[in-house]
Structures are given as C-alpha cells and as structure tokens.
Write a structure and sequence with these properties.
This protein is mainly α. The protein has one domain. The protein has 6 helices and no strands. Helix 3 runs antiparallel to helix 4 and helix 5 runs antiparallel to helix 6. The chain is elongated and about 50 Å long.
Length: about 150
Amino acid sequence: MPFMSKLKWIDLPPLWLLLFLALAWVQATRMPLAPIDHPVTDMLAGMLIGGGLLMMAVAVVQMRQHHTTFVPHKHASFLVTNGVFSYSRNPIYLGDAMVLLGCVLHWSAWPSLVLVPLFMWVITDRFIHEEESWLKEDFGPEFEQWSRKTRRWL
C-alpha cells in the first residue's frame, strides 16, 4: 500500500473529470452520431457547463471564507452547511458532473451519457465516502444533522 499512498497526489477529481471528458470527446469525434443541432440543446449544454463552473467557484469561495480545505484527501477544519452546501453536500463534485453532462450534450456524444453516472459512482467511491467518514468523525452530530437534510448530490 505504500506505493498507492504515494500516488494519492494524482488521484484528484479534476483528473478524473478530464479522463471522462476525454472519453466523451473521443467517442464524439471517432464514433460520431447524428448531431442534434437545436438551440435548446445548445442552451442546455451551455447552462450545464456554465452552471457547473459557477457552482464549483462559489463552493470554493465559501470554503475559503471559512478557512477550510477544498483539497481532497484532507480533513476539513470547518463544516460548511450554508449557501450551495445547503442544496448539495458535494457542490464541487456536482459541478464536475454538470460540466461533463454539458460537454456530452454539446458534442452530441449520446452514447457517452452513460459516463455521467459512472463518473458520479467513481467520485463517490474514490472521494465522497472517505470525506463523509472524516466529516462524521470530526463533526459528529452537526454532520449527521446536515446529512439528514441535505442530499449527497442534489
């Protein structure tokens, strides 16, 4: 296991997002399907990408305001439960999933829609379970109360 612990620095959600985006892009360019060139699809894709990036930025700002980390694999020093964290326990990861979905729509990579729930599963398995375990350990009843009223994703 020492080898795996040395690789923790590369096991980061943005790298997972880039991998899944690359897979969707390859599918869209190498195995394209008929694109749906419709203003509604374009608008939805833009809203998902822009909304996802905005959600991530707002969450990072909130965490920095409370002097806690937004870096995975590190314990939080403060439990942020207001703002975007009152809608999702993981707004940064939700933003990642929104960006992925928006890109899949923009590229008309319809078979790659399956990558969105797969990405969410990987993020949950690789990051969220560990982070929630630490939050429960570090913040106890406060985390329990927040997790009962706020969904993990949305």
